[in-house]
């Protein structure tokens, strides 16, 4: 098949910040299909990073960079508010851009003779409709209705809470409408799938979990720093920024009370101002963007994932386990991962329990070794991208031939 992949941002390869899901699945699909990529992404640096990867030209026949929306006018902003549009929508805020991008995508579908359009993320679905004449599949990764609802529940200021609640309703309406245009709606965890099924009971909704590149994220030859805790992720992402502050404020001081020379390393691109200030505290290091995440993971005695809200499978956990690192996380962090708490990872949902778990790993070699071995075995057996892409390939083929399983 000729498959046109449409993305709202530059796909992340294994070495780039962000989820490697789209690129990893496309890499596997390219073994049997011809893929064409169209993507937005305003960061020239990120585009350069992506295009310099030699695997990229082997995966995609062509790569087209789509323009970003121009600044909205005052009048169009008011029109957007009047229509109570979702924050992702450009229909009223940038009507000319919205119309032009729809036309350009239609032309590109014809030019590439696409047999199917594979859309990555909710935002880009607004530029496609039934006029293209080809089957379409959307991979939401996470259910944003669920993510925004979690944010609303956790918010304390009533104005922000109300705004998040209203945005949740708008996103829910959008996600509810997807099965009318898309043959399959994909997500990466059964928890997110369940929410989408409640929104659209008649839709064809399928979970394809995230995988991990076990060749890229492999155990290193060197040892680790004895008392180093590492938390990774894009630190401008709300759940990660919240987790970093939660760890620094409520968990790490309790670890230091038990392990006096413990270190907390917050590693990832674009930290918020609040996260960056955490690096001013004793024992805490905030790196910002790094060229390669693996040396930081390799240096960890234990990897922490103290997420209090979020959606989908957490790539950071799979990557850490692939490198043979013990992991301590919350029940939110474990959602969608078939890991046994207490055997493959440690799970804790309050600050003292989380701190105790981290301290136990730092001070008990047998526990650290057991978690390392069990976690590494789990991802090798269940979370390869090849297995996930096989499931995706079957779903795409079914949609392309008009089948409905």
Structure description:
The chain is of the alpha/beta class and 405 residues long. It has 2 domains: 2-211 and 385-400, 3-Layer(aba) Sandwich (Rossmann fold); 228-382, Rossmann fold (3-Layer(aba) Sandwich). Helix content is 45%, strand content 14%. The protein contains 16 helices and 13 strands. It has helices at residues 21-29, 44-51, 54-59, 74-82, 95-111, 144-154, 158-177, 190-199, 238-258, 273-278, 294-298, 315-322, 331-334, 351-363, 365-382, 385-400, and strands at 2-7, 34-39, 60-65, 116-120, 136-139, 184-187, 205-207, 228-232, 263-267, 284-288, 302-305, 327-329, 346-347. The strands form 2 sheets. A 7-stranded parallel sheet has the order 3-2-1-4-5-6-7. A 6-stranded parallel sheet has the order 10-9-8-11-12-13, sandwiched between helices. Strand 11, helix 12 (315-322) and strand 12 (327-329) form a beta-alpha-beta unit. Helix 1 (21-29) packs across helix 16, helix 6 packs antiparallel against helix 7 (158-177) and helix 9 (238-258) packs across helix 14 (351-363). The chain starts with a strand and ends in a 5-residue tail after the last helix. The mean pLDDT is 91.
């Amino acid at each position: 098949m000729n498959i046109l992949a449409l993305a709202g941002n530059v796909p992340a390869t294994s070495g780039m910040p962000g989820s490697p899901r789209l690129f990893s699945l496309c890499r596997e699909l390219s073994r049997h299909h011809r893929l064409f990529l169209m993507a937005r992404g305003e960061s020239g640096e990120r585009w350069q990073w992506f295009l310099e990867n030699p695997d990229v030209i082997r995966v995609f026949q062509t790569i087209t960079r789509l323009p970003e929306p121009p600044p909205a006018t005052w009048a169009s902003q008011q029109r957007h508010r009047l229509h109570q549009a979702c924050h992702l929508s450009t229909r009223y805020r940038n009507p000319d851009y919205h119309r032009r991008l729809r036309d350009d995508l239609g032309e590109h579908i014809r030019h590439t003779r696409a047999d199917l359009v594979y859309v990555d993320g909710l935002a880009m679905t607004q530029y496609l409709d039934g006029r293209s004449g080809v089957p379409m599949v959307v991979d939401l990764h996470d259910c944003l209705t669920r993510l925004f609802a979690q944010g609303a529940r956790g918010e304390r200021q009533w104005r922000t809470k109300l705004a998040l609640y209203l945005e949740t309703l708008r996103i829910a309406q959008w996600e509810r409408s997807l099965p009318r245009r898309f043959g399959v709606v994909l997500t990466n965890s059964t928890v997110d799938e369940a929410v989408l099924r409640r929104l659209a009971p008649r839709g064809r909704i399928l979970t394809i979990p995230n995988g991990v590149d076990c060749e890229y994220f492999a155990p290193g030859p060197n040892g680790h720093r004895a008392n180093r805790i590492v938390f990774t992720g894009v630190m401008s992402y709300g759940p990660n920024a919240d987790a970093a502050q939660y760890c620094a404020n409520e968990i790490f001081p309790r670890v230091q009370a038990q392990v006096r020379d413990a270190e907390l390393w917050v590693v990832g691109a674009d930290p918020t101002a609040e996260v960056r200030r955490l690096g001013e505290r004793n024992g805490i290091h905030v790196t910002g963007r790094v060229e390669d995440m693996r040396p930081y993971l390799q240096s960890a005695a234990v990897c922490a994932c103290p997420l209090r809200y979020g959606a989908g499978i957490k790539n950071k956990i799979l990557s850490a386990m692939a490198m043979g690192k013990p992991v301590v996380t919350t029940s939110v962090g474990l959602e969608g991962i078939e890991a046994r708490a207490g055997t493959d990872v440690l799970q804790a949902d309050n600050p003292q329990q989380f701190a105790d778990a981290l301290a136990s790993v730092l001070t008990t070699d047998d526990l650290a070794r057991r978690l390392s071995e069990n976690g590494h075995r789990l991802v090798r057996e269940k979370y390869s991208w090849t297995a996930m892409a096989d499931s995706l390939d079957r779903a795409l083929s079914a949609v392309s031939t008009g089948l409905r399983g």
